[in-house]
Amino acid sequence: MDNVTEKEVVSKNFIEQIIEKDLEEGYCSQVKTRFPPEPNGYLHIGHAKSILLNYGLAKKYQGQFNLRFDDTNPTKEKTEFVESIMEDIKWLGADWEDRLFFASDYFEEMYEAAVKLIKKGKAFVCDLSAEEIREYRGTLTEPGKNSPYRDRSVEENLQLFENMKNGAYQDGEKVLRAKIDMSSPNINMRDPVIYRVAHMFHHNTKDTWCIYPMYDFAHPIEDAIEHITHSICTLEFEDHRPLYDWVVRELGYPNPPKQIEFAKLFLTNVVTGKRYIKKLVEDGIVDGWDDPRLVSISALRRRGFTKEAIQNFVELVGVSKANSSVDYAMLEYCIREDLKLKAPRMMAVLDPIKLVIDNYPENQSELVEAANNQENEEMGRRMVPFGRELYIEREDFMEEPPKKYFRLFPGNEVRLMHAYFVTCTGCEKDENGNVTVVHCTYDPETKCGSGFTGRKVKGTIHWVPALKAVEAEVRLYENIVDEEKGKLNEDGALNLNPNSLTVLKKCYLEPALAKAEKLDKFQFVRNGYFCVDSKDSMEGRLVFNRIVSLKSSFKL
Ligand code: ATP
Ligand code: MG
């Protein structure tokens, strides 16, 4: 976690410093930022960082935040993704108000911009193939060579570009290139392609266009049209900044936007990067883009993460110029902190075994009182039915315990949480020697809250009443990749953790949980924080996801 220091958390980040200087010096009077997703997949935790950063800056400086779909590449884009992206951004709490834009709405302006460059002698139509263009481009150590088509006249270029637009050529037959400098030390400046022929259907403009602008040309124009002041992007675009500046300068935009780069957010032991997530989805390794083992925003939401936890996490990580990976445990820390005082603390038995209290009268039952959250009295109290037969965790009984085992074993006394002290008297087993029922007796004088102040016991275990328990499926998760063993295998495929999902089909919960609704979150005492699954859970067949265990390996 080398990019989180206390200093960074409290002091202004480098982008805020730039913005404050720009406001002071009059470079702009109002800050305008944007989030420009390409609608070719679902958003992930890295995008959340970008969204909250851009939105947060606009808000902090009383500016505006735009949502703009960067839909200039029709091959991989889908309306499904547009909808999920909007839902995720709203859920995160970023508000674009009425400023929802599509880059494809600017295709006409981009075309006009290209014509303007041609007229200025700053762009030319080139007939080289993609491969030839690559060969002519040179390398980091060698300059490139001019294209033989570089000196076409303005008139010829205008005509050919119009022909491109009118569908006269096949894909790849001709491109429009900026005329900059084939010997520039920056390869991005060596006459980059700015328009290509692509006979493709576009989800927004349909069949109107058969030429499409390249990202490096389109993006600065989009920003300039929307009067973005600070175009914040990730570090891989740093080398593209001279081209960004060239485009807005040559096109003569007044008050051109300024590109600022920051480091991408990476997390250990999970998969960020749309490309990888998409592959897991397409290969059927996960149950869709919202599989709770993923860190897409929809997956985090389904798993039970709250927007507050994600906001805090992003805040803690801070903004930096150096790439590094953040420990996944830090995200877990943030959700635990958020749910600590918010989530009701309930009893749920994940690996049940029956406990019979032999001296508790048959056909008797009673209610015991439990605090909903011991650390937050405001959450009130509830009554839990108690009776002669209960379920407890299988691991809370041992016939022959090791030292320092303070739970049930023959002769030992423990407290049943919110209820009585019980002393273990033995167990029943099946023909294979597996324990099937544990027996005990209780001391009626020890009811919690009855004023009993006598003996002390070392162990407290949780339970649910056997007759009234609610059955549920519980899903436990581990990280999807095991980074200690390497993120990738030798063949370049992801090194997946085979234990990333454990399904417990028959768990027993306190009766109050029967009414739990999708996405409700609870602490199951001793077992962690859990959330009702939003996809598979239904009345009569509850499914819970473990968000996070209670134990933490992370300290702030
Ligand atoms: P991926 O690499 O996951 O495919 P992308 O960069 O291709 O993501 P876009 O839709 O093009 O996805 O990104 C929208 C915005 O989100 C861009 O400004 C991009 O820089 C930013 N972004 C993408 N990934 C991260 C990340 N890991 N951390 C911070 N910002 C990110
Ligand atoms: Mg992209």
Blueprint (SSEs and pairs):
Blueprint: H1 6-10, H2 14-24, E1 32-35, H3 45-60, E2 64-69, H4 79-92, E3 100-102, H5 107-119, E4 123-126, H6 130-137, H7 154-165, E5 175-178, E6 193-197, E7 211-213, H8 215-225, E8 230-234, H9 241-250, E9 258-262, E10 265-267, H10 274-282, H11 297-303, H12 307-317, E11 324-326, H13 328-340, E12 345-346, E13 348-349, E14 352-357, E15 365-371, E16 381-387, E17 389-393, E18 413-416, E19 421-429, E20 435-443, E21 460-461, E22 464-465, E23 470-477, E24 501-509, E25 521-524, E26 528-532, E27 542-548
Parallel strand pairs: 1-2, 2-3, 8-9, 10-11, 12-25, 14-20, 18-21, 23-27
Antiparallel strand pairs: 4-5, 5-6, 6-7, 13-24, 14-17, 15-16, 17-22, 18-19, 19-20, 23-24, 25-26, 26-27
Please name the defining characteristics of this protein.
binds adenosine-5'-triphosphate, elongated, 7-stranded mixed beta sheet, disordered N terminus, binds magnesium ion, 556 residues, alpha/beta
Notes on the structure:
The chain has 556 residues and is an alpha/beta fold. 25% of the residues lie in helices and 24% in strands. The chain has 13 helices and 27 strands. A 7-stranded mixed beta sheet has the order 12-25-26-27-23-24-13, with helices on one face. The chain has a 7-stranded mixed beta sheet with strand order 21-18-19-20-14-17-22, with no helix packed on it. Helix 12 crosses helix 13. The N terminus is likely disordered. Adenosine-5'-triphosphate binds next to helix 3, strand 8 and helix 10.
